[in-house]
Amino acid sequence: MMLSSELNNESSPPHIRNAAGLALKNALTAREAARQADYSSRWLGLDIGVRSKVKDETLKALGSPHPKVGQVAAQSVAAIASVELPVGQWLDVIELLIGFMNNQSNTPLRVATLQAIGYICESIKPEILTTRSNEILTAVIHGARKEEPSSEVQQAAITALLNSVEFVRDNFEREGERNYIMQVVCEATQNSSVSVQVGAFEVLVKIMTHYYDKMGFYMERALFGLTVMGMKHQDESIALQAIEFWSTHLNPLIRLRTMARSRKTRANFFARTALPEILPVILQLLTRQEEDADEDEWNVSMAAGTCLGLLAQAVTDNIVQPVIPFIEANIRAADWHQREAAVMAFGSIMDGPDPKVLVPLVNQALPILIDMMGDNNIHVKDTVAWTLGRICDLLINTIQPDVHLHPLVSALVGGLTDNPRIIANCCWALMNLADQLDFSENEEMAGQGSPLSPYYEGIIQALLRATETASNEGNYRTAAYEAITSYVIHATDDTIPVVQSTAVAILHRMEQLLGMQNQILGVDDRNNWNDLQSNFCSVIISVIRKLGQGIQPLADRIMTLVLQLIQAAGKTSTILEDAFLVVGSLASALEQGFSPYIQAFLPFLYPALKAHEDAQLCTVAIGVIGDISRALGEQSASYANAFMNVLLENLQSDILNRNVKITILSCFGDIALAIGPAFEPYLGTTMNVLRQASLLTPNPLDVELLEYVSLLREGILEAYTGIVAGLKGTEKASILLPYVPSVFELVQKCLADSDRSESTFKLAIGLLGDLADTFPNGEIKQYLLAEWIASELRTRTRMPVETKKTLRWAREVVKRATA
Fold first, then answer.
1. If pLDDT is split at 50, 70 and 90, which confidence band does 80 have?
2. Is the distance from CB of 507 to CB of 464 less than 8 angstroms?
3. For residue 673, which of 106, 281, 383, 722 is within the disulfide window of CB 3.0 to 4.6 Å?
């Protein structure tokens, strides 16, 4: 009460009143759901008389002649409303606020009232205010009209409209009301006040997002012309919103075209029709760069580049010919603005048009672009490196190894000693080159080497030199380590020695960095240390996966360093996750050769498994149990009891994220598959847990729960698959028979789901096959002869190759088991 009284006290200094209002608002609102629930309960528990007095005083403060006080009062009103309206209280607040709007003589009151309406709309679910949407819209639109004499009221009304766009869906369905709303907003884009204009374009962007299917008529009649004028505006804030409008317009069109693979939609036709008008404006805006622009600060030239990229994806081949003259006219210009804009334009149209259309242009441009990596302007070089990265990513076939590879690699490696922004883009380009020129997956080609093989050692050495710095400005050091990881992943047989020497270099750096643990002085040092260790772990993981059993000579050194890293990390979960991933990879690579390390590692694994409040760390730790079990096979039986106990404890936790529990169910399958008949002591408990979990049935209207249940069923299927496979062909297989009905019940439920995923279908069919293969002598014949099984095992036309193989195999084993 003291706070609201102070907020409403006109004799008190404005800054004191502001502080009181903010304290009141902060006593009612919180970002965390649990704290918000606590604040709401505390407020609703107050005497109704106290609450009424606070509300009255807060509403009166809306009329303060001090704008800031009125705004803080509006926030406080919204904070109270966001607590009371959802529980059916203070239902007349909207009516009271709309009444204030009729006081034409009190401009500050009308401004603060509109702000309050906007804040309420922003903080409350639309369905709660549905019955008041007409009144809200009437008040807001009235304030936004061009006839409104106060630009402050117009500004507040436009902001309130921005926050209420989602509430007025019913109004947008009615043509007459929609026309009037659009008229007022379009007129506001021509207001004499820049802030009103910016707000009006923001509203148009949001309307386009929510009511895209209703905008065709308005695009033709008004929006096209208004937004082109807006993009040409000298005020950057207006131009930015006008560009954003077009980006928003193009995004749904790109999605539609991707889904339908059709280029004949009306929206696409309109985009192509508008192309001659908007493209010259966008290209011109590319030249409005700033010499000292902050990379993180969004500006007109960046927005124009993004919009051009979207336009290329929307109109595809039609973008190419109109853009080429701009590129040709500017790429050799004396003014760096024009050169950079030309390169940006070229890079932006790489995604969208048919590669066949782009190939001859890229072939012609590549030598010029490579040469421009020596440009004397940092902005030009940065964009050239980005464009080369786009070409490597999207049009790798244009790079002829015998013609382009040497100058391209030389230029990109040379860029690794430049400005941090240029280094980051050169790393990205080099990474794309390795990813797209990947010969490692094809055994025959991997044996012959890759076109990149002669450059491997030089590239990785240059990347390692680029990382010899204490700075990570622009994330360039991280980008360099990511590129190194990519080269390790795609290494062919002839470059394995380079991978091995890279591993030794990274391990040496880990040792050095661990030795500096006591020299860390502050948060920045700690973050830098953490980032580097994460980078090292990522490279080592890729090395282990590439070398497989060949990592054995370095295994002792890796495990020693990882255990030291776990101890040094303390409770820094991201470092612990990375360290555990290294261990899991090493276990998978060494298989039973990992056994000498397990006793030293387990004391560090168990605390992570019990970190219920850290879902990600716990998930990774559970994954390591699976890795170790698969690696050691039957040898892991001696650890199974401890593993199963901690996993079962985790399932009972009320704190642990439910998605982590799905990972636990899958892990049961890993343990069972590894130890086979030795899983018998845990079978009853595990099968009971799996059956209970399979009974969960989602509300079809709860999308989040539907998704969770889908993932849960996949986890259960994986567990059943591991258990069945572990017992198949052993003398203990018969202990599965009592549980067969519940397994079939889940499989039928999964296959009957029309929204099932491809992975669920494959798992379910595979499990049917495993059961039939486990009991080939008719033990479960009565279940396998069910009509639904025969129906599901029929061949389908559209199906991935691997799924089709699984289906064919399952059909054969079921036939044998029912003969």
1. very high
2. no
3. 722
Average pLDDT over residues 283-289: 94
- Answer for the pair 83, 28: CB distance below 8 angstroms, yes or no: yes
Average pLDDT of the segment spanning 22-46: 90
The percentage of the chain sitting over the pLDDT mark of 90, rounded to a whole number, equals 71
What is the pLDDT at residue 445? 55
Which pairs from 678-685 meet CB under 8 Å and 24+ separation? 678/634, 678/637, 678/640, 679/640, 679/723, 679/726, 679/727, 680/732, 680/735, 681/641, 682/640, 682/644, 683/723, 683/735, 683/736, 683/739, 685/648
Neighbours of 464 (CB within 10 A): 18
What are φ and ψ of residue 610, in 5° steps?
-95, 5
Inter-CA distances, 527 with 363, 522, 523, 524, Å:
43, 9, 6, 5
Band (pLDDT 50/70/90 cuts) for residue 270 is low
| Of the listed ranges 60-69, 248-257, 463-472, the one predicted with least confidence | 248-257
* Predicted structure pTM score: 0.84
Do residues 156 and 143 lie in contact, with contact meaning Cβ atoms separated by under 8 Å?
A: yes
Q: 462-468, long-range: CB within 8 Å, 24+ apart, which pairs? A: 462/413, 462/416, 463/416, 463/427, 463/430, 463/487, 464/502, 464/505, 465/416, 466/416, 466/417, 466/423, 466/427, 467/535
User: What is the 3 state secondary structure string of 323-370?
Assistant: HHHHHHHHCCCCCHHHHHHHHHHHHHCCCCCCHHHHHHHHHHHHHHHH
Read off the tokens for 256: 């539609």
Are the C-beta atoms of residues 289 and 297 closer than 8 Å to each other?
no
- DSSP tag of 403: I
Q: Tell me the per-residue pLDDT of 584-623, one tens digit each, with 9 for 90 and over.
A: 999 999 999 999 999 999 999 999 999 888 999 999 999 9
Strand extents, DSSP E, 594-645:
none
DSSP per-residue string spanning 471-499? --GGGHHHHHHHHHHHHHHT--GGGHHHH
Q: What is the dihedral of CA 61, 66, 71, 76, to 10 degrees?
A: -30
Q: How far is it, in rounded angstroms, from Cα 491 to Cα 487?
A: 6
Q: Residue 264's pLDDT is what?
A: 47
Using CA atoms, how far apart are residues 432 and 387, in angstroms rounded to an integer?
12
Give residue for tokens 């921005």.
162
Chain mean pLDDT for the chain: 90
CB contact set of 819 (below 8 Å; sequence gap of 6+)? none
Q: Please, are residues 273 and 222 in contact by the beta-carbon 8 Å criterion? A: no
Cα atoms found within 13 Å of the Cα of residue 560, Cβ hemisphere only: 8
The angle, 0 to 180 degrees and rounded to 10, between the axes of the packed helices 378-394 and 406-414 is 140
User: Which one, of 107, 87, 112, lies nearest residue 97 by Cα?
Assistant: 112
Whether pLDDT at 262 is above 50: no
Give CA 312 to chain center in angstroms: 23
